[in-house]
Amino acid sequence: MVAGMADRFYINSRLAPGVVELEGAEAHHLATVCRLRPGDPVCLFNGDGHEYPALVRMVARRAVVVEVTGATTPKRELPFPVEVATPLPKGDRAQFLIEKLTELGVTAFVPLQTARSVVHPGEAKLDRLQRTVVEASKQSGRNVLLRVGPLTSWSEYARKERAGLRRLLAHVGAGALSKASGSAVVLAVGPEGGFTDKEIAEARTAGWEVVGLGPRILRVETAALVLTTWAIMCQ
Ligand code: SAM
What we know:
Blueprint: E1 8-10, E2 18-23, H1 24-33, E3 41-45, E4 52-59, E5 63-68, E6 82-86, H2 92-104, E7 108-113, H3 123-140, E8 147-148, E9 152-153, H4 154-159, E10 166-170, E11 185-188, H5 197-205, E12 209-211, H6 220-233
Parallel strand pairs: 1-3, 6-7, 6-11, 7-8, 7-9, 10-11, 10-12
Antiparallel strand pairs: 2-5, 3-4, 4-5
Bound molecules: S-adenosylmethionine.
């Protein structure tokens, strides 16, 4: 939870002053985990960039009623878009990656299909990642949700026209990062087995900068977080 802020709850619908019913996981979280009661202040968000202070009005086993009292627009987003593309790491490491990218303010995540990818996420896995985005947004105070894109092939992604965006691809052994020049960035990291020479050549031809992150081999999620942090802090 953000310091000094009421417990936050996500609702996938339009919000405005007035009465709103929460159901499912959010109602359970409010009533059973946070043990909130009528009169307690909460904060709702739906990903539209605003947050909505509210008061709990009624708490039942499966549904909770709250009353939205206003709307505010705190500045918690990055001043420029950051898109990160990686093949999904295995198991819980994918959730970890998405949680941290959400906390860092990343705009969009694209799961990549590369020659050496191992994980090929289906609908259920992508839905779980979306739930992780919501949980991390509740915790970090984000009011805009990180977008999780569909599985995209590296060749298609590498060649996509991105006018005005700096595109950086992390590759073991490449030259160190230089000072950033632009603002919005697209960042790509390879699978555990690395990008193939052909994939790196495709990226160079399409205008990507191929950059190194130091002499040690980082796991996919570590490399993605290092590259993202650098892109955010060095603009
Ligand atoms: N043996 C693989 C190779 O040499 O490419 C290791 C792949 S690494 C576990 C997974 C991905 O993280 C890489 O494809 C790259 O995108 C990124 N990565 C890991 N360590 C890196 C480093 N020191 N410099 C740049 N990228 C790195």
